[in-house]
Amino acid sequence: MSTGKTILVVEDRNSSLKLFQDLLDNKGYAVVPITDGSLVEDAVLRHRPDLIVMDIQLPGKSGLDIIPALKIHPDTRSIPILAVSAFTMESDVARIMASGPDAFMTKPFNILDFLKKVAELLASSDSVKKAV
User: Which member of 14, 15, 84, 108 has the lowest number of beta carbons within 10 Å of its beta carbon?
Assistant: First the structure.
């Protein structure tokens, strides 16, 4: 059962990446895994995902650097980004949100909350595409 939606998952920890892949595969999403921040921008332009799940602490390039770059690029700015991080201090969350993601979740997260947020972001992206 494919939804026809592609989700780019940017996560450097294998166990977390596998969890994201399993959860999203089970819901019928096509998952493109990326483990190095320096590869994200090219992968986004190549795969044109419907959503990006972005860890913040990455090798190569930080999510805090990648998110603003994607949000100012005309070809990628409309792709919703769900930032995920184990950083939970208020100052960390404020800094992450200031980088421009559409939503943020702390790790570990509730699986149902994660899947609900993914569905919400995809639905809001669909309504924006229809309005354009």
Answer: 15
Residues 34, 10: contact at Cβ < 8 Å?
yes
Is the separation of the CB atoms in 31 and 20 below 8 Å?
A: yes
Task: Give the three-state DSSP class for 111.
Answer: helix
Q: What's the start-to-end Cα distance of the chain, in Å? A: 28
pLDDT reading at 130 higher than 90: no
Instruction: Answer with the residue of higher pLDDT: 126 or 125.
Output: 125
Q: What is the mean pLDDT of the chain?
A: 91
Place of tokens 């419907």: 50
**Amino acid identity, residue 2?**
S
Which residue segments constitute the domains of the chain, with CATH numbers given?
A: 6-131 (3.40.50.2300)
Alpha helices in the chain (DSSP H): 14-26, 40-47, 63-72, 90-98, 111-131
